[in-house]
Each structure stands twice: as C-alpha cells, then as structure tokens.
TrEMBL record:
Gene3D superfamilies linked to this entry: D-Amino Acid Oxidase, subunit A, domain 2 (3.30.9.10), FAD/NAD(P)-binding domain (3.50.50.60)
TM regions (residue ranges): 12-34, 46-68
Keyword Transmembrane belongs to the record: yes
Native source organism of the sequence: Coffea arabica (Arabian coffee)
One Pfam family linked to the record: DAO
Chain ranges of the FAD dependent oxidoreductase domain: 70-410
Taxonomic lineage of the native organism: Eukaryota, Viridiplantae, Streptophyta, Embryophyta, Tracheophyta
Name under which the protein is recorded: Uncharacterized protein isoform X2
Length: 433
C-alpha cells in the first residue's frame, strides 16, 4: 500500500568522520510497537536499493514475521533507477568478467523471473482490454547485446577475455559480416564485434514496478496461508533525520544513492527516448540485439529505442527533467557517438529526454564496487548493527542489486557483517585513515 506522510521540517546533516551524509530517502522496518507481532519476531527489510531493489519478502524463513516500511520521496523508479539503460550482462567494456560475476548474474536472473511472473499474474487477473495494454509493455527483451570493437589497443585483450566467459552468458567473437547479419546497417570499424546472445535488455521502470508488485503478492500470500504476519508500506516522502526513528525499528537500511556526499564522485547522465520518423521505412530489425559502444542503444521495438548516455561528472543536479539546452547538447553528443556504430540512428527523432544522477563508488583493486555495511556510529549511539548503508552502485546497479541485496538481507537478519565480502567493506578502513 502507498501512504502519504507529511515530510519533516527538521533537516539536520549527520557527520561521518569528515564526510557529511544527507538522507533524502530512507528505508525502514515497521514499528516495533506493532502488537500483532510476536516479541520474538524480527522486523527487517531485505533491501531497497537506489537502482531497483525492492526487497522480495519470500527470501527468508516463511515463518518469520516481517513488517516493512519504505520511505522514498520520488516513488518507485522516480530517480536514476527508472531511467537506467537496462543492458544487463556480466562483463566490463573489455569483455572481462566483473567481480563476482556468476553470483551477480544468476541472482539477477532469479529476481527478473520473479518480476515477470508477478506481471503475468496481474495480466491474467485483469480485464481483457487492460491485459492487452499491459502485454504491450514487456519487462525484458531477449535478443542479446552486440559490442563492436572501437579501440585497436584493446582488441587483443578482448579476444583473450572472451575465452573466460560464463557458460550462462556466452560471448562470441565475430567478424564484420557476421555482425552486420545480426544488425543490418551496423558499422564495424575494426572488423570485429563481440556478441552476448544471452544478455538482456531490461526496461528498468517496468521491472521496478513488477518487482514491487511481487513483494505485495508475497505479503498477500503469506497472510492467506496464515504462516506469519507480514506487512509492506510505502511512504512517498522524505525523512530528515535517522534519530526521528531511533526507537521505532529493529533495523534501518539507508539507500543514499547519488546524494551520498561522502562518495568521491557523482555523474549525471541524460538518456534520449528515440522514435523512427514516419517517413522512414527502415525499421530496427525485430530480432536484432541491442548495441553497446561509446553510446548504447537499448532497443524496445522496431521504431522505439533508448540512446544513452552522457556523463557529466561532479554534477549535483538530481532533477530527472532535462531543460531544452541540455537536451539539445546531449542529443548532439549521443548521435555523434551512436552514428559511429549505427549510422541510421540519424534518422530517428527524440520523443523525450530524461536524466539521472549516479553515485560513483571509489576504485578498488577489483574495480569500482558498491558500498555496504553497518553504520551505527553515524547516530552516535550504542546499537548492535541496527543502521545499515547500501550505496555506490554507479552504472551497474542492475547487475549488482540482486546478489548484494541477498547478502544485505542476511547481514541485517543476523546483525552481523560476516555475510558481506571483505571487498565491499574496504571503504571503512579508508574512512579511518
């Protein structure tokens, strides 16, 4: 259910060492005063991420009472998460496997299947007209992703990395002619491209909505079975201070997103929603993959695609709206990059331009990794792992969200960081230096 609450007028900043946290949106558990819950029941959120992640209430023990409150002033998918490109695969730009690639890939596929089932269930339970309308908006496009090589210095490295791909998300190296057969009109500057046939194109906004629907369905199912009391509440509002809820929740998960001021950098990205002009008949082939390069093309249909993304570093502009001048400059930049690999993109026109601000995590020996962990010391009070932070997913939130969400759930339930890989806790050591 969705509730409206009056935002707090108290907007303090909480200091964490030399860095300042600003909490525009917080994700909490339900009040511990709820009389219908056994005193032994824990009230904990599994995870609510900056990119998508509304916790799925069926992850833990079926007999565990759960009451979950979510606070987010912009609503489901209202931030950068809802405008993400959605090209999901487990590889870096050099087609090297990302950190803990197999775990992240497999858990993401599981959550996607859960979201798809929730949407299918809704379609079956609605009227015919609404069902037909809903089926026109797919969560996933399963046509793979193609990455043409555009840098000579990386070709040898990419050829080597292909040999170490996941069996569940293969990479096929192909020449120009094979790539052009996949995407007619494609330009392959260096005569080699890398095809990921199992990679996915996820519509982030639809996925977020379906995943939240799955959470609601899980709550209803548990109530119908009489297994354990469960409740999920969504408050579309902001919260000024953690201390406002100091005594109300057993645990608090804070998803700061791009407003995490202690992160080294933020980056604003503009994405353009493109449509093919009526006077052009050369549609994007229905069965062709989406494209990754300096600009990416996330295909939605023969005359419908997203083109992204710009990178405006150190931006503090959180607005999803894109002014005319910014939209024009972004389109010029994206068309220039996009036309290098798909010249026909110049025939497409803009339907809408939207933007999001990414929270970019610090660089580690394993790449740029998200930040997880207990932050009880933020409140200045003695708690046993009550307050948790999850941020810094950068441009890979869709890839990381499911597996790290699962780890976060385990950590919060156990009130221990033992389930969190040490690589994701390195930021704590740097804070102390």
């Amino acid at each position: 259910m969705e509730h409206q609450k009056t935002p707090s007028t108290n907007l303090p900043f909480l200091s964490f060492f030399f860095f300042v946290f600003h909490f525009p949106s917080l994700f909490f558990l339900a009040p511990s005063a709820a009389s219908q819950v056994s005193k032994w029941g824990k009230r904990v959120p599994f995870l609510v991420l900056a990119l998508l992640g509304f916790l799925l209430l069926g992850i833990c023990c079926r007999d565990l009472p759960l009451l979950v409150d979510i606070y987010d002033e912009v609503g489901i998918g209202g931030g950068a998460s809802g405008v993400a490109g959605g090209l999901l695969h487990p590889y870096s730009p050099k087609v090297k496997l990302l950190w803990r690639a197999e775990e992240c890939w497999n858990e993401s596929l599981k959550l996607i299947r859960i979201a798809e089932r929730a949407k299918q269930s809704k379609v079956l339970n609605t009227g015919r007209q609404e069902a037909v309308h809903s089926m026109n908006f797919s969560i996933i496009r399963r046509r793979g992703i193609l990455r043409p090589a555009v840098s000579l210095k990386n070709i040898n490295i990419m050829d080597h990395n292909v040999e170490n791909c996941l069996a569940s998300c293969r990479i096929e190296s192909m020449d120009k002619h094979a790539a052009e057969n996949l995407v007619p009109g494609l330009s392959v500057p260096l005569n080699v491209a890398f095809h990921m046939p199992e990679a996915l194109n996820v519509h982030s906004q639809y996925y977020l909505e379906a995943l939240y629907l799955a959470c609601q369905n899980s709550v209803a199912e548990m109530l119908n079975l009489g297994v354990a009391p469960r409740e999920l509440n969504f408050y579309k509002t902001s919260v000024g201070s953690l201390l406002e809820f100091a005594g109300e929740y057993n645990a608090v998960v804070i998803c700061l997103g791009a407003r995490a001021a202690f992160l080294p950098e933020s980056c604003r990205g503009v994405v353009t929603h493109m449509q093919l002009s009526d006077n052009f008949r050369e549609e994007y082939p229905q069965h062709s993959p989406s494209i990754l390069s300096d600009a990416w093309i996330a295909v939605q249909g023969p005359r419908d695609l997203y083109l992204g993304s710009t990178w405006e570093w150190r931006s503090a502009n959180y607005s999803r709206n894109v002014p005319t001048v910014e939209a024009s400059e972004a389109l010029e930049e994206l068309l220039l990059k996009g036309s290098v690999i798909y010249p026909a993109i110049s025939n497409w026109t803009v339907r809408e331009a939207v933007a999001g601000l990414r929270a970019m995590p610090p660089l580690t020996p394993h790449g740029s990794l998200p930040i997880l962990g207990c932050v009880d010391n933020v409140t200045g009070r003695n708690h046993a792992c009550k307050y948790w932070v999850f941020t810094g997913l950068g441009s890979r939130g869709l890839f990381y969200h499911a597996w790290l969400g699962k780890l976060m759930a385990q950590a919060v339930l156990s009130r221990s960081e033992h389930s969190i890989p040490s690589e994701l806790l390195l930021w704590k050591q740097k804070m102390k230096q």
